[in-house]
Design goal:
The chain has 245 residues and is α/β, with parallel strands linked by helices. 30% of the residues lie in helices and 22% in strands. The longest helix has 15 residues, at 81-95.
Amino acid sequence: MKTEIINLSNEGVTLTAYILDSSNEMSNWNYRPAMLVIPGGGYNFCSDREAEPVAMAFASKGFNTFVLRYSIGRGKAAFPNPLNDAEEALRMIVDNSEKWHIDTNRTAAIGFSAGGHLCAALSTMGAIKPKAAVLCYPCILSSIGDILAEPVPSVDEYVDGTTPPTFIVSSREDTCVPIENSLRYADALEKAGVDFEMHIFSKGYHGFSLANEVVFSKEEDYLYNIHLSGWFELCAAWLKKTFNY
């Protein structure tokens, strides 16, 4: 694996690339699907728990992966700054597809919480869009702006026929980002005729990420949320079917 950290246009914004090695023994992987990972953090920070561990999980499924650390904090996180960051990151992945051995027909993005909002914004409002999107307990509605660094648009209002197929996972117990956000987005996808799959778990904390021992420091948190870890294999299977690889 090769790693590279690229500074993007906005101050403090970086894209970290994790590029798997090519091999004649695995010629079917000469060009790989790509996953742009967009961590959460309320547009105040970018969560490490939703960054590299997620990138490594998708790398284990054959993806070349990229972690975006976008514009955060009061002022810097004001829209459309983060969206500009995400567009620039995705454009860079596509423009460097030969260098990074990317199949440009199989570019996906995954976002968590506020990163889910940004991923959904990229999927609906972006000048360039991923070919598939994964939203994990996403902020969607403008009403959630009270807990974020800056106000945000309700991205469900921008869903249309150009929005990519989407996988959504959330928890009914989430009191930080109510499942209304996921449901409203799913409803917009359905009305626009966009393919989607959604899984709503009964129990689980907000911010469960991969819901395994890698991302939880406390054993009680890991044990309470471990049942949620199944979302990743469901998502991987959905991506495999969606991308037909």
